[in-house]
Every structure is written in structure tokens, then in C-alpha cells.
Amino acid sequence: MKVIICGGGQVGSTIARHLAMEGIDVTxxxxxxxxxxxxxxxxxxxxxxxxxxxxxxxxxxxxxDADMLIAVTRSxxxxxxxxxxxxxxxxxxxxxxxxxxxxxxxxxRHSLYAQDQLPIDVIISPEIEVASGIERRLRTPGAFDTVPxxxxxxxxxxxxxxxxxxxLIGRPLSELKTLLPDAGLVVLTIVRxxxxxxxxxxxxxxxxxDVYVVTDTRHADRIMRFFGHEEQVARRVVIVGGxxxxxxxxxxxxxxxxxxxxRVIESSRDRAELISQxxxxxxxxxxxxxxxxxxxVEANVGSAETIIAVxxxxxxxxxxxVLAKRxxxxxxxxxxxxxxxxxxxxxLGIDAVVAPNTITISSILRHVRHRSVSALYALRExxxxxxxxxxxxxxxxxxxxxxxxxxxxxMLIGAIVRDDQVIIPTSxxxxxxxxxxxxxxxxxxxxxxxxxxxxxxxDKP
Length: 461
Description:
The protein is an alpha/beta fold.
């Protein structure tokens, strides 16, 4: 498989690294010589300097033989034109573009991306996906991460085990069935001291661990209580940042939770006036600096249950969250782009971190995987993914129980969805063709897991 990536920034270079690790032929185009050189020297990929939408540049990058083009430059227009040129001149079979501007994303304009117009197969919109992810986290306030799978029947929950009320601390995972006989769950991953691993039955959860669990959505509240979390859904919310993410989120909350008291802090007067017109009476919009105490007091953060900081500046988001919690705000959800900050944030009292690049990478990698993979969520940097995949006829996976088929080390199946039934499997559970599996797969186990999931003659998209 041959892939061209337009844009060598954090998203483009991370995708390139993931694909190169899987033996995929990757070329990265970037207009910055320094960025292209860094990609070329850091990963087993080819870095090229050039304007990603120019035909001669795409031709030099090997577009005539490429299977996929992924356009993630900073410019929506460059990404769109790169897809157009790749299709019209080089017949690249699959084209993915990151598009941010809301005007390009309105439903009434989706016909723009038909093959006889701007031929883009998949549009990735980070701002919309980030807003959607934050809205989901607000519905499960004790979780630092929440991802619905299998049309919402299954829930992936990221949970802090930082409370003595967590019933699992110090107990081996093999006792879960005894502790929670009627509400099945599987602990897919434990993160301890910054290191993630796929646990076995004899492993124990320690205080301070973060865990990713998968469960039937109907049992999610009970699972949260089991882990010591009984936080109430926020009814008083302050959003810092009225950009695309903040405005999208405010609109979503105004629609899905109309009883929520909603305040938005925006530093630009013009932008504050615009979003005030957009939101009308559904929110109070304040023009001011969220790092100034007077602004936070005016927004009444001391009585707010959640502050959500989503400006374009990581440092502003972090410090606004810290200051709001010092004023009495109960919970902070903070957008942070720089992964190097991640280990510091829990010590600052930040409850949940939103990483736009991780969300974008997850969306793109799902379309690179085999067509049986219908959803994908990348966990910690370099560790692995939680996937939703359909068991294929003829694959080794459907030839016996989970124990008999030989699931590789580094892969753990957490749930099976058969028709409308959610099954929390044991090692003796058998898998049938057409079943949907929710599983964690480390990158080290990715090739073996893919060989298990698909038949011998089945190819990637």
C-alpha cells in the first residue's frame, strides 16, 4: 500500500509514523524544508518539500501509483484542491481531507464533495469532533474519556482510580465477575505512572491508576459508581474560548441540555459579539480575558460545576482551568495540543484532557485499516487502539472459542455485539461471522491481530 500525506505537522507526521511502522510506503509533502527534513530523518518515510496541491509536486510524490491521499495541511483550500488534483489527474482511489471552516461543513453544502465536484471520500472535521467528544464527557462526568461504540450499545470509559471508594483497588481483575455479577465489564488497559499495558486476570488496579473499561452502555452509571465516581451531570457550565470548538459545543449543549446555565468567555470583542448573536438567549457571552480574576468572577465560575477551556492556546486553557478551580469550580475539561504537557496536568487538578490531534488521528487511521474496522480510537501515544471490527467469514477468529483461536499477546476482546445483544466474553466464548468485536490492540500486536480478524484473501480498503 502506498500513501501520500499532505502536511508534515503533528497530525501528518504522527500518521506517517503509524503507517510506516506497519510497513506502508509513505511520502509526506510539506512546504517547509525544515518540516520535510525532520519527517524524513525521524521516521522511515520519504519527506518532500513542495506545495501539496501542485500537480508536479504530487506527481513527484508518486501520485500515479498511490492508493490513498491524506490531506492535513493547515489550509482547508489546499487540502481540498490536493484531493481534486489527486483524483482528476492521477486517479488516486481514496482521498481524505481535514476541513475546519464551518462554512464548508454545513449539511446543505455536502453535495460539494461529490466526485463530479470536489471528490473527497472522507472529511475529517476536528472542531466538530472535539465538541462532540466534550459533550459526551459531560454526560458521564466521572469519566475522563468516553467513546460510544456499536451505535451506542457499548461504552468505552476512561476512569481515574484516585479514590479510596474504588471497589477494585487492590483486587485482582479475575474477581470482577464476583464483584459485579450482573453488570459485565472488561478492563482493556491500565495506565500506571505514564505507562500503559493490557492487563491479565492476576493484575490488580492500584490507587492512582487510570483504566479504560468497556461495558454495556446501560450499565455505565453503575460501573462509574463501582469505581468510586458519583459526580452529578453539570447544570452550570463555563466555556473559555468562542472559536469553532467553543461555539459548536455551546450550540450542542443549548440543544441537548436546554436547562444548562451556559456562559462563554471570549477575548475578541468582534468574535464575542458574533457568537452572542448566534447563541441568542441560550447563553451569556462575556468579552474578557479568562486569566484575569475579574472576568472569572463575572462569569461566576465559583458556582460553576464545570469549566471547559477550548481556546487555541494550550497555556491559556491550562491556566484558566487552574484559576477557575481555585475560585471553586468543581471540574475542569481542558483542550491541550502538546502531548508533552499530558503528564503534568493531573498534578494541576485538571480532570479531563481533550487532545484534538488524537481525535483527528483516530478518525484517519480508521480509514486506513481493513474495511472490517468500523470504528477506531487511538489510546496513548505509541501504545495502541481500541477498535470495533466485524468478524469476517473465513477468518481464524470464527473457528473456535477465544481461547482456541489464539488471540495474540497485546490484544484483548472486551465486548461482542451480536444482533442487539451485548456479550461480555470469557475465554470460552465463541465468535460468529458478522459479530462486532470491541477490542484493544497494541501496535506491537497489530499485524497479528489483523491476520486473526480477516480471511487469507481479504485486503485493506
